[in-house]
Amino acid sequence: MGEITRLVNGDRGKNYPSKDKLTPIGDIPFISAINIKDNTITKDNLLYLSQHQYDLLRDGKLKKNDLVVCIRGSLGKNCIYPFETGAIASSLVIIKIFINENIIINYISVYFDTSLFKLDINKYNNGSVQPNLGARDLMKFLIPLPPLEEQKRIVAKIEELLPLVEDYAAFYNELEKLNAKFPEDIKKSILQYAIQGKLVEQRKEEGSAEKLFNQIQEEKQRLIKEGKIKKQKPLPEIKEDEIPFEIPKTWKWCRLGNLINHIMGKTPPRSEFKWWGEDMPWVSISDMKDYGEINYTKESVCQEAVDEKFINVSKKGTLLMSFKLTVGRTSILNIDAVHNEAIISIYPYIDKNYSLRNYLFYILPLITQWGDSKKAIKGNTLNSSSISSLLIPPPPLEEQKRIVAKIEELLPLCEELKI
Questions:
Q1: N or C, which end of the chain has less CB nearby within 10 Å?
Q2: In what order do the strands lie in the sheet with 78-80?
Q3: What pLDDT, on the 0 to 100 scale, is given for residue 384?
Q4: In a domain, 183, yes or no
Q5: Do 200 and 98 share a structural domain?
Q6: Considering only CA atoms, which of 93, 188, 101 is closest in space to residue 141?
Q7: Is the domain of 240 the same as that of 380?
Q8: Nearest-CA neighbor of 182 among 414, 366, 407?
Q9: Other Cβ atoms within 10 Å of 381 Cβ, number
């Protein structure tokens, strides 16, 4: 480099501008490494010198098309200076070519972006705490010099290809985003197919959801009669314009409250430490994972809180759903626990071998996000009434089992796509 160029340092004497001499608006740009981006100067965070301060400088004055290289901190960062005048900070140097007719600026600029240049940076970097290049060392860097006409052709070919590389980079980045989304998109599609009756075939011998619905209503009335659950207000009839999509003939659109009983939780007063202890795990939304199990909780409450503040303890195997902020997140308890008021425990009236529980586990996150159900969410929250009014299309019991089995076969494959 020292045989074909000379190096100009910034002024490091008494006239080097202090911070109070620099302004965000002014006459002469004062360039530091932070202003170099994509081989040019960005005006973001650019500071200026006054004409008077510029005139006092002995070195480091820039002219248009000067090469600028960083030798402290962001080693090798470089650009062709685009403005008429300017000055450099002490972390930069100006590279000036001895004979402009024989070497073109753009070729040297190309060299500054090569791995060859970076190898010499690593070779001569003498900084311990902060990366640093000595000016004399920079002049030792090796550069392969072709004839002038070939320099021009090299630069012309690079200028022809770089836009294509940038286009490719943009397409590649977009593809990477799509690849990152793809597993989740496939997962959503599988669940969407499941809830529309498209994931498994319907079998006539498995009966109908209408029959299952009637059995559930009989069980619900029995529980009310025995005083195990409270009698609820009748839920509104389902109107034609509420139905978001068609389902198989053997399925039935229902209100969630006609299929399950749900119980909300509590948060004991934070100001009274007596309610908090180690006796019973207390679930908050942060303890829940999408389609996950809860094996432990961050906080617990004492037995007195369980007895006085909570309606019941949710037993191991209970399905939980969040209905505030993170609406529709489902998890299954793998421990006995209580939970806060942003979560409900879900108890299907009929649930042979957890069939309906498991179906709801996968389906509830979807039904809280569509159509009129979504309109029920106000300020990212549901209430007891809107939870009960959610629309859900249950299939016959045996088909529920087959749907869950197919989901559990396919979802791990979606996870493998993330690797």
A1: C
A2: 5-9, 92-97, 67-70, 78-80
A3: 79
A4: no
A5: no
A6: 93
A7: yes
A8: 414
A9: 14
Q: Which of 179, 183, 177, 182 is nearest to 411 (CA)?
A: 183
d(CA 419, CA 417): 6
The token duo for 321 is: 């759903």
CATH of the domain at 239: 3.90.220.20
Same domain? For 127 and 261 the reply is: no
Model confidence pLDDT, tens digit, residues 269-324: 988 889 999 999 999 999 998 888 999 999 999 999 999 999 899 999 999 999 88
Cα 112 off chain centre by: 35
What letter does residue 72 receive in the DSSP assignment?
Answer: B
Q: What tokens were used for 193?
A: 């197919």
pLDDT of residue 419: 61
Amino acid identity of residue 132, one-letter, is N
Cα-trace Rg, the chain = 35
Are 219 and 73 within one domain?
no
CA atoms within 13 A on the CB side of 86: 26
By residue count, the chain amounts to: 419
Q: Helix, strand, or coil here: 407?
A: helix
Please indicate, yes or no, whether residues 87 and 221 belong to a single structural domain of this protein.
Answer: no
Whole-angstrom Cα distance, residue 104 to residue 40? 17
pTM for this model (two decimals): 0.63
Below-70 pLDDT ranges, the chain: 100-102, 370-381, 419
What is the secondary structure of 135-193 as a DSSP string? HHHHTT-------HHHHHHHHHHHHHHHHHHHHHHHHHHHHHHHHHHHHHHHHHHHHHH
Q: What integer pLDDT is reported at residue 381 of this predicted model? A: 63
Regarding whether 398 and 274 lie in a shared domain, the answer is: yes
Task: Write down the residue that tokens 């059995």 correspond to.
Answer: 215
Number of domains comprising the chain: 2
Residue 187 lies in a domain: no
Neighbours of 30 (CB within 10 A): 24
Distances (CA, A) of 195 to 376, 400, 404: 20, 10, 11
Residue 208 contacts residue 197 (beta carbons within 8 Å):
no
Cα–Cα dist 127/294, whole Å: 51
Same domain, 274 and 135: no
| Residues 6+ positions from 55 with CB-CB distance below 8 Å | none
Number of neighbouring beta carbons within 10 Å of residue 109? 19
